[in-house]
What does this fold into?
Amino acid sequence: MAMNFKIPKFPFNVPFFLYDISNFQLITVPNLPSDISDSKDIVLTELPVPGLNFSPVQVGGGGNRKISFTLPLIKRNNTVGNLMLLKQFDQLRNQATGFTGIFSSQFLPNPKVLFYYGVGSVPLIYFVKKCDAMHKQGWINEMGYPQYSEVSMELWLDEDNILYKGEEIFRKIIAITGQADGLRSVIRSQQSKKYNPY
It folds into this structure.
Protein backbone atom coordinates (compact mmCIF):
# COMPACT_ATOMS: atom_id res chain seq x y z
CA MET A 1 0.00 0.00 0.00
CA ALA A 2 1.47 3.36 -1.06
CA MET A 3 1.68 6.23 1.40
CA ASN A 4 -0.78 9.03 0.74
CA PHE A 5 0.68 12.51 1.18
CA LYS A 6 -2.35 14.38 -0.13
CA ILE A 7 -3.53 16.82 2.51
CA PRO A 8 -7.01 18.33 2.20
CA LYS A 9 -7.41 22.08 1.89
CA PHE A 10 -8.18 23.78 5.15
CA PRO A 11 -11.36 25.85 5.61
CA PHE A 12 -9.38 28.50 7.53
CA ASN A 13 -6.06 30.35 7.60
CA VAL A 14 -3.82 30.58 10.65
CA PRO A 15 -3.32 34.34 11.15
CA PHE A 16 0.04 36.01 11.65
CA PHE A 17 0.74 36.45 15.35
CA LEU A 18 3.40 37.10 17.97
CA TYR A 19 2.79 36.45 21.65
CA ASP A 20 4.68 38.78 23.98
CA ILE A 21 5.51 36.33 26.78
CA SER A 22 6.82 38.90 29.24
CA ASN A 23 3.92 41.35 28.92
CA PHE A 24 1.21 38.70 28.33
CA GLN A 25 0.00 40.30 25.09
CA LEU A 26 -1.12 38.74 21.82
CA ILE A 27 0.00 40.79 18.80
CA THR A 28 -1.93 39.97 15.66
CA VAL A 29 -2.86 41.87 12.51
CA PRO A 30 -4.82 41.01 9.34
CA ASN A 31 -1.79 41.87 7.17
CA LEU A 32 0.90 39.33 6.34
CA PRO A 33 4.65 39.96 6.57
CA SER A 34 6.88 40.45 3.56
CA ASP A 35 9.35 37.75 2.54
CA ILE A 36 10.54 35.99 5.70
CA SER A 37 14.30 35.45 5.97
CA ASP A 38 15.36 32.35 7.93
CA SER A 39 19.13 32.08 8.47
CA LYS A 40 21.51 30.09 10.66
CA ASP A 41 25.30 30.26 10.50
CA ILE A 42 27.37 27.11 10.21
CA VAL A 43 30.72 27.97 11.79
CA LEU A 44 33.69 26.44 9.95
CA THR A 45 37.36 27.43 10.24
CA GLU A 46 40.15 26.66 7.79
CA LEU A 47 43.41 25.57 9.45
CA PRO A 48 46.34 26.23 7.08
CA VAL A 49 49.12 23.61 7.23
CA PRO A 50 52.52 24.55 5.72
CA GLY A 51 53.21 22.60 2.52
CA LEU A 52 49.75 21.05 2.31
CA ASN A 53 47.63 21.57 -0.82
CA PHE A 54 44.47 22.19 1.19
CA SER A 55 43.45 23.52 4.59
CA PRO A 56 41.78 21.08 6.98
CA VAL A 57 38.38 22.30 8.16
CA GLN A 58 37.61 22.61 11.85
CA VAL A 59 33.91 22.52 12.80
CA GLY A 60 33.26 25.40 15.18
CA GLY A 61 29.58 24.78 15.91
CA GLY A 62 26.44 26.52 14.79
CA GLY A 63 25.19 30.07 15.00
CA ASN A 64 21.79 31.24 16.16
CA ARG A 65 18.75 30.83 13.94
CA LYS A 66 17.58 34.30 12.90
CA ILE A 67 14.17 35.19 11.48
CA SER A 68 13.60 38.59 9.89
CA PHE A 69 10.68 40.19 8.08
CA THR A 70 8.84 43.46 7.55
CA LEU A 71 5.22 43.76 8.62
CA PRO A 72 2.91 46.49 7.26
CA LEU A 73 0.60 48.11 9.83
CA ILE A 74 -2.23 49.92 8.06
CA LYS A 75 -5.08 51.52 9.97
CA ARG A 76 -6.83 54.40 8.25
CA ASN A 77 -8.24 55.77 11.46
CA ASN A 78 -8.50 59.55 11.62
CA THR A 79 -8.40 59.57 15.41
CA VAL A 80 -5.41 57.48 16.52
CA GLY A 81 -4.25 55.82 13.27
CA ASN A 82 -2.28 52.64 13.97
CA LEU A 83 -1.03 53.94 17.34
CA MET A 84 -2.49 51.07 19.38
CA LEU A 85 -0.72 48.45 17.25
CA LEU A 86 2.52 50.42 17.27
CA LYS A 87 2.58 50.57 21.06
CA GLN A 88 2.31 46.78 21.23
CA PHE A 89 5.42 46.51 19.07
CA ASP A 90 7.05 49.34 21.01
CA GLN A 91 6.90 47.21 24.15
CA LEU A 92 9.08 44.60 22.42
CA ARG A 93 12.03 46.98 22.22
CA ASN A 94 11.81 48.21 25.80
CA GLN A 95 12.29 46.50 29.13
CA ALA A 96 9.52 44.07 30.06
CA THR A 97 7.20 45.32 32.79
CA GLY A 98 4.62 42.52 32.87
CA PHE A 99 0.86 42.87 32.53
CA THR A 100 0.31 45.40 35.32
CA GLY A 101 3.72 47.07 35.58
CA ILE A 102 4.21 50.55 34.15
CA PHE A 103 7.73 51.66 34.96
CA SER A 104 10.86 49.82 33.86
CA SER A 105 13.84 49.42 36.17
CA GLN A 106 17.50 48.50 35.95
CA PHE A 107 18.58 45.13 34.50
CA LEU A 108 15.17 44.05 33.21
CA PRO A 109 15.49 42.32 29.80
CA ASN A 110 13.35 43.13 26.81
CA PRO A 111 10.53 40.63 26.13
CA LYS A 112 10.74 37.27 24.42
CA VAL A 113 8.03 36.27 21.95
CA LEU A 114 6.32 33.08 20.84
CA PHE A 115 6.40 33.05 17.02
CA TYR A 116 5.10 30.53 14.51
CA TYR A 117 4.12 31.99 11.16
CA GLY A 118 5.69 31.03 7.82
CA VAL A 119 8.93 29.30 8.85
CA GLY A 120 7.88 25.63 8.91
CA SER A 121 8.49 25.10 12.63
CA VAL A 122 6.38 24.44 15.67
CA PRO A 123 5.69 27.60 17.73
CA LEU A 124 9.04 28.61 19.23
CA ILE A 125 10.38 31.22 21.65
CA TYR A 126 12.58 33.98 20.24
CA PHE A 127 14.60 36.91 21.57
CA VAL A 128 13.61 40.20 19.92
CA LYS A 129 16.81 41.57 18.37
CA LYS A 130 15.28 44.29 16.21
CA CYS A 131 11.92 46.06 16.13
CA ASP A 132 12.10 49.24 14.03
CA ALA A 133 9.25 51.23 12.52
CA MET A 134 9.20 53.25 9.29
CA HIS A 135 6.21 55.63 9.11
CA LYS A 136 5.14 56.30 5.53
CA GLN A 137 5.08 59.86 4.25
CA GLY A 138 1.57 61.01 3.34
CA TRP A 139 -0.06 58.56 5.75
CA ILE A 140 -0.19 60.81 8.82
CA ASN A 141 -3.66 61.78 10.01
CA GLU A 142 -4.93 65.18 11.15
CA MET A 143 -3.96 64.44 14.75
CA GLY A 144 -0.35 63.66 13.76
CA TYR A 145 -0.58 59.89 14.22
CA PRO A 146 0.72 57.44 11.58
CA GLN A 147 -1.77 55.38 9.60
CA TYR A 148 0.69 53.26 7.63
CA SER A 149 3.92 51.99 9.19
CA GLU A 150 6.27 49.17 8.32
CA VAL A 151 7.77 47.33 11.27
CA SER A 152 11.08 45.58 10.56
CA MET A 153 11.78 42.70 12.93
CA GLU A 154 14.62 40.33 13.62
CA LEU A 155 14.10 37.42 16.01
CA TRP A 156 16.83 35.15 17.44
CA LEU A 157 15.78 31.65 18.43
CA ASP A 158 16.03 30.63 22.10
CA GLU A 159 17.08 26.95 21.95
CA ASP A 160 17.23 26.53 25.73
CA ASN A 161 13.61 25.52 26.46
CA ILE A 162 11.21 22.58 26.13
CA LEU A 163 9.53 23.93 22.98
CA TYR A 164 12.81 23.65 21.09
CA LYS A 165 13.06 19.98 22.08
CA GLY A 166 9.67 19.52 20.40
CA GLU A 167 11.04 21.23 17.28
CA GLU A 168 13.98 18.79 17.16
CA ILE A 169 11.58 15.81 17.23
CA PHE A 170 9.30 17.47 14.65
CA ARG A 171 12.29 18.18 12.38
CA LYS A 172 13.47 14.55 12.42
CA ILE A 173 10.02 13.07 11.76
CA ILE A 174 9.16 15.49 8.94
CA ALA A 175 12.61 15.02 7.35
CA ILE A 176 12.11 11.24 7.21
CA THR A 177 8.63 11.73 5.74
CA GLY A 178 10.07 14.24 3.27
CA GLN A 179 12.56 11.65 2.09
CA ALA A 180 9.74 9.22 1.31
CA ASP A 181 7.69 11.93 -0.41
CA GLY A 182 10.68 13.04 -2.51
CA LEU A 183 11.41 9.50 -3.69
CA ARG A 184 7.75 8.94 -4.50
CA SER A 185 7.61 12.16 -6.57
CA VAL A 186 10.74 11.22 -8.53
CA ILE A 187 9.47 7.71 -9.29
CA ARG A 188 6.07 9.03 -10.42
CA SER A 189 7.67 11.70 -12.62
CA GLN A 190 9.77 9.01 -14.33
CA GLN A 191 6.75 6.78 -14.92
CA SER A 192 4.52 9.51 -16.33
CA LYS A 193 5.73 12.63 -18.12
CA LYS A 194 2.33 14.23 -17.42
CA TYR A 195 2.82 13.99 -13.65
CA ASN A 196 3.24 17.40 -12.00
CA PRO A 197 4.81 17.10 -8.50
CA TYR A 198 3.74 20.67 -7.66
Observations:
- Strands lie at 17-20, 25-28, 37-46, 57-74, 112-115, 124-135, 148-157.
- The chain has a mean pLDDT of 88.
